[in-house]
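Please produce the structure of this protein holding adenosine monophosphate.
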Amino acid sequence: MTDQNFADDNPPKLLTTNPFDDDKFHDECGVFGAFNTPEASTHTVLGLHALQHRGQEAAGIVSHHDGQFYSHKSLGQVADNFNTQPVIASLPGSSAIGHVRYSTSGGAGLRNVQPLFADLAGGGFAICHNGNLTNALTLKKHLVEKGAIFQSTSDSEVVIHLIATSTYPTLLDKFIDAMRRVEGAFAFVALSEDCLIGARDPLGVRPLVLGRLPNDAYIFASETCALDIIGAEYIRDVEPGEVVSVTNKGLTSVKPFPVSSPRPCIFEHVYFSRPDSLTNGTSIYKVRKNIGKELAKECTVKADLVVPVPDSGVPAAIGYAQEAGIPFELGIIRNHYVGRTFIEPSDTIRHLGVKLKHNANRGELDGKIVVLVDDSIVRGTTSVKIVDMVRQAGAKEVHMYIASPPTTDPCYYGVDTPNKDKLLAANKTIDEMAEHIGADSLKFISIDGLYRAVGEGGRNNDVPQYCDACFSSEYPTPLTDNNASDDDKQFSLLTDSR
Ligand code: AMP
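Below is the modeled complex.
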């Protein structure tokens, strides 16, 4: 295994707070894999570039050529660290996997950057993970007690150890054995000497799609926008609970888990996925416009303008404006050279970030009654700044309409949300929230409205069709680590550093 910049790793810091009180929850990520293409690492760089919105703090690629694995990992964005001929040349071979990652504050050391790699009994094995395992700390405790030595603080490393200690004969079987023992959300892309694997958890919480290039080259990616960038054909979504493996003999699929009703993450539709991606063949952009339309059916106000909070509020605002028959204008302009506000690590930077990112388009707003549309309110930081900015630009009334229900609960499945005490909707009524953000009125789409927008008749409360825990408090898997004893939490406190 050749690792280009292992020595650049940040020295690990000892965890100073209990990870269960962590302000943010672990990773938001994008994964990509290419098999049987002479340009595997170039395709992976491009694919990761298309998935950059899923994680901007670090990226990594592992390629395979002639029995050897090669790696390049870097803190920062793909375009800044992978876009050179020497880097591509250092990743030879016809198969490669890659990962973009956003980690919690301070957790961005190179040792946590994926793909993770290990030399196992069956050969070299590299793995990328999008999602979050909800029993990782519990499994880690058992593994460490049995003598496992962890190299990173990533929950995904647990999977490597489970594979290493599995008694099944082949690497694929060991991998499936490991997946049967983890709980929570995962979309994995893994690479061995002769096989590329794509796998989704039994509920299909996190997305993963399968694509193809000419000459039987296969691609896995978190979203279809990563297929588009390399001109790959979108075949289909990897199904919940499906493990697809690709070798020189072709593609095989197994479903090794007990059958359960799928619960893909509804927040991917609301915010996380790129609007030009498809999920199960459906356009995310169209779904977001539908959300705006449903919102307009549920909540109306006499207004002069509909103004999106760019970029995340744009498709819903278009849908709202079309349905309500109110003119749509870009009353706020975004500076594209600043990253996602929410993704900045500290509160201070986050506050500063909103000012850096948005500016009022005064000429459109002065003297107007404005409906502002955004996708979600988390802490409320963005809304406070934006409402004030629009008022300062002369708006007569500012009504804030949100294209998701109130975010009342943290995500434990790989979307970064703060703890409940920082979630505005968990701590205030809607009227109090309106007052807090300074809006004349504040409306959220109903949960049934959101389900209608994604193409369901409404939410099936007996067997919900999606994971909507951030809006409903109903977590579809056990949260084993959260219920761990204080002793176990103390264990993770001592062993987990960031
Ligand atoms: P806040 O300022 O904390 O209320 O954050 C709300 C804004 O952050 C919204 O405009 C969203 O576009 C964006 N957002 C919501 N959830 C996330 C997330 N998990 N990661 C990054 N950004 C998010």
